[in-house]
User: What shape does this take?
Amino acid sequence: MKKILSMIFASLLIAGCINLDFYPSDMLTSAALSENPAAAVYTTDGIYAMMKDMLEFRGGYSQNNTFVRQYYLLNELKSDNICFSWTSTDPFWTSAQFMDDANSADAAYMWVACYKIIFAANANISGLKDVDTSIPSSDRQLLGENYFLRAFFHLMLCNLYAKPYSFGTENPGVVLRLGTDYSETKRATVGECYKAIEEDLLEAIKCMDPSTKRGDNGYATKEAAQGLLSRVYLYEGEWQKCIDVASEILGSDPSAHLESEVYDVYAKSSTNREVLWCVDITDADMANWSPKGLVASMFDSPDGTQGKGWGELYVADPLLDLFERFPQDKRYTDLIRLFNSQDGLFITWGEKDDVNDCLTNVNIYPNVDVAKGTISSSITENGDGTYSFTYDGKAMKAIPDNTSTKISDEFPGYILNDAAHTRCYVRHKMPTPTITTSGSVIWENNMASVRPGGYPTWFCNKLSVRDGSAYELNTSYIMIRYAEVLLNRAEAYAHLGKDSEAIADVNVVRKRAGLTGNGQMTVANMASRGYKTSVDCVLDERRMELFYEGFRVIDLVRNGKDIDRRYPSRTVTEVIPYTSGKIQYQIPVDETSVSGIPINEK
Amino acid sequence: MKKLFSFILMSLVSVAALAQNVTGSVKDAATGEPLVGVGVLVSTGGGAVTDLDGNFSVKAGKDASITFNLLGYADVVEQVNGRSKIEVFMKEDVHFLDEVVVMGYTTQKKNELSSSVVSLRSEEIIDNATPDLGNMIQGKAAGVVVMNASGQPGEGAQIRIRGTGSISASADPLYVVDGIAGGSFNPNDVESVTILKDASATALYGASAAGGVIVVTTKSAKDRSRTEVNFKASAGIKQALSGRFHSMDSKELYETQRMMMSKAQFNNMRPESLLDLNYDWYGNIFKKGIVQDYYASVSGVTGRVNYFASIDHYDEEGSLIGTGFDRNSARLNLGAPIGEKVMFNARIAYNRAKSDYSTDWKDAAMAYQGLPWDNPFDENGNPLAIGTSAAAGAVWYGKEQYNPFHSLVYNSSTGTSEDIVADLQLTWNITDWLSFTSTGRFGSYNWASKNYYDSRTNTSAKDVGSMYHGVGTGWSVGLTELLKAHKNFGPHALSGIIGYEVGWGHSESVGASGSFMPTGMHALNSVGTDGMGVSGSESDSAAWAVLAQAQYSYDEKYVATASIRYDKTYKFAPATRGGFFPGVSAAWIISKESFMDNVKMFDLLKLRAGYGKTGNSDISPFLYYDAFSTGSTYNGKVVAVAERMSNPELGWEVAYMASLGIEARMFDRVNFSLDLYSTNNKNLLLDVPQAPSSGFTLYTANIGTINNKGIELAVDADIIKTRDWRWNLGFNFGLNRNTVVYLPNGAFRRGYGTPKVEQIVCEGHDIYTWYMPEWAGVDPENGDPLWWSYEQATDDAGKLLYYVLDDRGNPTEETTTESTAWPKYTGERTATNNYADATYRMTGSATPKFTGGINSNLIWKNWSLGANFYFVYGNKVFNRSRITNDCDGSYLDYNMMSLDNGLGWVRWDPNDESTWAVATHPRPKMNGNKKSNSYSTRYLEDGSFMRLRNVTLAYNISKPILGGFIQGGRVYFSADNVFTLTKFSGADPEVRLEGSGSSLAGVFSDNYPVPRSFILGIDIKF
Assistant: This one.
């Protein structure tokens, strides 16, 4: 008995000595990390990595949920550059239709991702500032990058979830997170947000120096901060400040900052001279990523067969029309690709689909009327600028439109001689239809050249090419580049009434696109080409230069222009007034149900 | 096997040499009638059966013992002792009263139990063809909810005992195998299963016992000197079920799509030739599978050593193409005395299992969504390589460019696991009232997981071969020291244990993936360097506990038990690691009172009550630290990303349970028990949602209280009990009410997926309360979808009113400041066709209101017919598949579910006025009708069902045949999941009982339904 009792007591003593302190082997605690002298490098690079990585969201990881994907999609989906052929199971379909709500996954992910990054930037800023006031220049660079990043992400949040600055500074902005005190959660005003963004960028410019740049275009620099500041000033309507800061980095010869070939801007984005800042994607990243999860896959499907990308978004007819004015534009020839195309006259227009409130395409090929699935007479070029063809047994004509205020006689759009159909589009490239022996047309393969509804698949391949990569659709995602800075300045000049300066900047971009001679704009030809103001001219140039890069919606709205969706697409045919609350994304319910901050009015 | 037989034959021969003739008769002890058909088994081998006059004659050795058995009577063992004539009286089996229940650390007489337990013997659970214990106990224990959410072979069922008390931490029960927490077992080796339901019993297990405890005891040699060889074999087919669900056939889909489009468009997109195509995706992707199980065991006593050894091979082909499971397992249980007072037991169990999984979620999805116009096979019968360059130009109407039959040829996804668990147990009977048991258990396991995607398939979507290969290994060591005492002092009986437990564990894993593999390579030695990814982890664990229990009983009339346990685990921060878990219970066996002497109807009448506290630490380790993940890179350099903040206060989730029960056995035929309980789970280990603007979306903290209360009723009766006929009918019923009592912010929403499916965890409501807009039907005027929009209250100036939340998150006064969380509604509602105006509401719960089972066993002579029903009532299941399958045209390139499912569904047809007033389904439109397939109660369905889980017809060999070569056994035919009564429109109403990191409880989403199976089996004892 004694023995047993002593055994028991002995085992109790052992119990007291059992070590229960273990550490995670696959993570670092903050204590362990702080022992590493390069901690700030790790955590700053962590921010860049968070922009491309799938972050945990609503309990899981999804290839849809990367910052870069949502950055490109959310900023572009509600624009007039996009044509949908089909309902998508992807939630971006609801955004594209202005039907997103506080539960929508994309906008909710974006909110979460931005604040995760802002949290990290705040931790880094407070850590680096605590070290010393006379910190080494390498740490000042890191500090500057973190200020820059905090500004970039606050601006991103403002673009998506708040009214533009031009609507007034007292509108509700987003939650401002500056410093490490998170005790209060409220929506700052738009004015307060922009003020903070501006201050952060000025601080970032002070901290960084070209000599401390840390690597390729994948790392923030002083110039990137200046470029972003030009964007901020533009959005604020601080025209002169925008011109000043843009001029500082553009120098006397802005063209020296542009790549000579349009294609190379995207093909070599991480190393070329034009890109101020991008998110680097390496082949190692691609190994863990299905190309279909990339944003590029929504815009393009690069090879001849199916399966590489979803290719669900097509370039909309109005943008194609803009390019058709100068079809030699390299931004058209090199960056927009009609899938499975061949040369040939091709006439297309939208026909009202009453069941679905949208415009379905009717496509007239030289030798086949696809909408009827039967062979029709070919299109006749009449020599007087009109085109004749037969549709549904009726003789029809496409006539240059001389009445539109937007399109001049020099670069015509077309209308039909049929009262039921007004606007039509004449193209010199056509999709190759597959016609069965019975005469019907097969077009339902995922990547076929014409999708249901008659929509030809015009892919944007800005994001789908990368030199030397083993992976298709691999690209480093451009966030800021000199051409945008230049067009920021052009717009600022235009708003100040300095038309010739504005046009001069526009022409730098046009020249690079291969538009010389007649292709150049002048103050004189501007009006004859349908532009009432130089601002409109700059906006069209921004549309052509920056399409699918996330600028179109904000450019229209902050300038008080409506979003005109009256073109063939599966989206509802409508004009969204620039004042519409549907343009801003809803603050996600994940946020409002916990912190109770006010929602956006629809 | 051959060896086994020759061994048996040899023993028969050697025994026969020493044997003498023994004759005699067997009579009923109560009536004196001769008993016919009594099995007479001689320990040295051989046997006979009594004839019509109850006489028998056998050969037996002088020192042999003879066992007499007859169903319904207690076994009698007679020592021969040189006698040549033996007269035996057998009593009807009343072993119930002396039945002993294994409680894990202790065993107890059933009638002295003071807490609520359900004890199931091996033969009560082996009817279903399944390798999983959860499936075996479904419908057999009141208050134990078992749901089998997947037909994936080898997948375990989910078990909830007395409701769900945890939200973020696991609410699974704790398994105790052969007296020690954890371990593994083959269901064929199970001798008994005891389910400890209330805290007065589970408190002794403290850690992780908040979800109840399931005690499993494996077989050992019966204390007989006869070698028993048992061989079982069963084989059968599995057949996929689809419930009320069936996809549209070519014609129905064609006609439905015609309604959605203009004539021109329809003619163009849907040529009439499509009607010649009619491929049945569901029927081909879900097909018949084969299941087989072979099992052999030997047990006996040689000298002073008793042994039990078994091997088992189980093989199941899934009903979903490409899925399967096989397992080999073996066990050796040995016992032997060392000297006079010490007994040792050694147990070794080995398992190796392999599962084949679908290589792509689309395998099952295509069954639901594949279009009848897409034939996955070409004209030569070869699977079409759709989605790859090899099939360029092929016509394919469906959305997913994916052919599961093609990927099946090349791709694979397998998981293997292997574990070995060895126990060594020493029991020292110090005196006749005091014993000491020391048990050491060592377990070692490893697993591997391999996914291979061939470059010829499009699954990787890269057209490059890719592969993932992960391996892991781990071990655990545990020691349990128990000092047990039991002593009677006249009518007083006192017993108790004190003990100590400690355990350590270790696990590590490494995984790698690669791509750009040459066709035909299946190993990671040939991947492109650009396409490599690696990951790894390693972790240690430890915990210890001390425990004590005391029990006092007076005259077997009054029983009182008290226990206490102190646990410490590595999962929590140093300051909060310890947890005290006490429990008390008492029982009053009324039937033993003298005043009951005249009440003949009760063989047993018992009242019991208990109260106890248990703990739950079942969360990921290290959550109390802050952490930076370093798993990613930027530009090839390792980066650090903040993963979570620290919580040095993180500690035990605890459950307090009070219970009261009454048990009775009446007329020697009827067993009855009724239990009431109430459990409060407090300091929940909760993933509390945080405002994302803080940089984090969740933090884990001890916050919140949940209450489960319920009633459990179990009745079984021997309705017929004659010599040839016996019929036992059992019924059990468990009703549970779950209520969230306290949460930090009053409520939070949980949702997953796209579109997001949501539940709200809200004070005063069930934890699985659905939260969604309410469907208001179809507008008869135009076929629009309608939802209810609730009118928000306004103040006198017409401004919308919201509630102000107090610091506890409860709505208090009104405000006009906007907030999405708590608008104030007037109760007035209008139907709207704009989904954005629909109001989110609480719309019922995924938790069943009650569940139960009916078990019937009818015996006629040697034949038995058993049936087992399981029912679930009052839960709401969200049929997520319908968002894509029943979408009114939103997805033209997915198939739709047929409306012809017996539920009276009608579609609003623009060409048929008779449908307008009665339509349940909106007018179909290409690309959808006003978001009609959005998340709403339209797809929230009654999940109640009643299922005939099993029917078994068996012929029992109750007496030795073939000259005693076969001692007994049975031949049976068994059918599982024979039929299901339900109003659920999906393929299977049996869905997940709990949420996971990425899904909610109660969601049906292109599930792999549980199949039906028909099994033929034999079970022979030699």
User: Anything to note?
Assistant: The longest strand of chain A covers residues 341-353.
